[in-house]
Amino acid sequence: MAPTHSNTMPMQQLDHICSPVPTATQLRIANAFWAATTPTGSPSGVRPYTPTALEPYFKYYTEQCKTVYHSLGTNLPFSKHDDIIQLAQEIGKQGLTRQQVLQSVEGRYPVAVPNTQFDKAELITGAVNLAARLLLMVDVGVPAMTNRMWTGRAFRSWDAGSIRDFTASIFPVQRPNGGRQSGIELDMDFNARNLDAIGGFKVELTNNLLDHLEMVDIEGETTVMIFHHASFLMNQEHRLFPHGFVQETIQTLALLFPQNKWYKDSKSWYYRRLKPTLIDDDDGILACGPLTMTNIDAYQFWHDRLVRLKMVYDQAKPRTLRQWWNDRREGTQWYALWVAVGFTIFFGLIQSIEGALQVYKAYSPAQG
Description:
Elements: H1 5-8, H2 11-14, H3 23-34, H4 51-72, H5 81-91, H6 98-108, H7 120-136, H8 163-170, H9 192-197, E1 202-206, E2 215-218, E3 221-227, H10 230-234, H11 245-256, H12 263-274, H13 303-315, H14 321-326, H15 331-363
Parallel strand pairs: 1-3
Antiparallel strand pairs: 2-3
Helix pairs in contact: 3-5, 4-7, 5-7, 6-7
């Protein structure tokens, strides 16, 4: 029996950032990025990674590595997964500032780069931006665009300070505790399935956390972007993002993909409408736990986008028969409407039958 390709591939080639990431390497990367697993188990409150949970993220990881590597050429300051791990640890665990990280990379790769359209500073910047993008699932620096993934917010530049300073600047508190209360309650009917089936929104999944809950116009359709990497969020140790941000983001997914009376319909809709659109979708989005934040004022980081989305949804009027059928936001009105429709159809049918009988009698020969 011939050996498999993975068995014959040299070790250095297995570690190349353009090669498939072996499971053991995935676990090392996850541990280095987020301390999600340790040799003795997982830290308290952090769910241990499994190959299945890792799969959606590492499809994103591989795509980002290939795009940056081929766009900057083979002169990128590093070419191995271990290089990314080292750089990510400096950014995340060590908390170095942007300038310190750039200097560290430059010190490890002091040789000038010959025969390339990019100078050394551009290549080092590209490498650092890639590591930050992989750590945060945010388009940092020039975005790595693909034909199948649209990113409404384009990108954000990390110019100074630590990565924690950067995330605090791009995910600011929108409604401080003690601020003015809007009093908006998030009822069970407000979910992703109903945004489509009732509100007429187009729902798109995104790999860019900056796009989450953004409403945009794509080819004349109001589209809601939803960040779907639940496993990525659930395994954060919260040192990369502002305090409370990760849990609040998970709660927005629990809101949009509820585990209540809508779970069955929501799950069916997800597999029918959303899953076929992505090869790296994260099914964990359907298991984000019970919704505990039911008042919109409890949300600090996603407050403004939720308010806007809820207002547009509440004001949306059904335009198709499907939307009319699904729209039960006003239960009494819904029953009254369809009772009226039923009576209209019933009496219309009777009138049609009576008319047909009259025509038949008028044209049928007289009975002898």
